[in-house]
Amino acid sequence: MGDFTHLDEQNNPQMVDVGSKNITKRVAKASCLVELPADIVEQLKDGDIETKKGPVFQTAILAGIMAAKRTADLIPLCHPLAINKCDVKIEVESSNTVRIISTVSLNGKTGVEMEALVAANVAGLTIYDMCKGFSHDITLKETKLLEKTGGKSDFKRDN
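RE: above sequence
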């Protein structure tokens, strides 16, 4: 078990000093599951759900990308990062579940796990926002890091 890197010697919050780290390619992938009730899933046509606000999945993809770029504004100790790429995909996984998968990459001194997690989650929240007129019985669940590469250690979830 490691130490909490965001605490100084007096246990006060601190931003991690990444100044002496090497620049490496860093990639992180995260997912979020969104459960939708049947009356919303029935609206799915040609891979998206059309609402008066616009196409749900296309809007959620844009929201996820925008959120990844603004992660440092939302999470207090995250470094502002110049992201090279952010990809958000939305797949219908079952009769009532949508999986959002975000992949974020950069060449830098710190990882992009938080950016990938925020992108997936905000995309899910956008689906909720755009579909709540149909039903409030929408559940976001199981937001998790799937894998990360670059930096001191790599990680890949088995499931």
